[in-house]
Amino acid sequence: MRELSENVSPYGDTFVTHRKYKIFYNYHKKHNEWFFIVYGTNKAVRYGYPCLGSDWHKTKEKGIDWAKALIDHVLETPKAQKK
Fold first, then answer.
1. More confident residue, 6 or 81
2. How far apart are CA 35 and CA 2, in angstroms?
3. In whole angstroms, what is the distance from residue 30 CA to residue 23 CA?
4. CA distance 7 to 15
5. pLDDT in the model for residue 83
6. Which of 9, 10, 36, 79 has a CA positioned 20 to 30 A from the CA of residue 45?
7. Residue 69: burial class (beta carbons within 10 Å; 0-12, 13-18, 19+)
8. What is the DSSP secondary-structure string of 13-38?
9. What is the C-alpha separation between 77 and 66, in angstroms, rounded?
10. Is the dihedral of CA 48, 52, 58, 59 positive or negative?
11. What's the alpha-carbon Rg for the chain, to the nearest Å?
């Protein structure tokens, strides 16, 4: 699997893209952890767009792995079962 390249949004937020979803993250010194939030848009959390999920992780790598697994799960889960 290829490495994800780190980008910065026009608003100054750091992210990587996986399957067209943006994984935003930053390090919080107060908590000594990384905060991750996953969007289907390039706008950050402060603009009120809905997200797939968010979580805290001790390392950036674990957080990115968590976010990629979340995106994969969402994209592989049927939205509705037809009866």
1. 6
2. 23
3. 21
4. 5
5. 43
6. 79
7. exposed
8. -EEEEETTEEEEEEEETTTTEEEEEE
9. 16
10. negative
11. 13
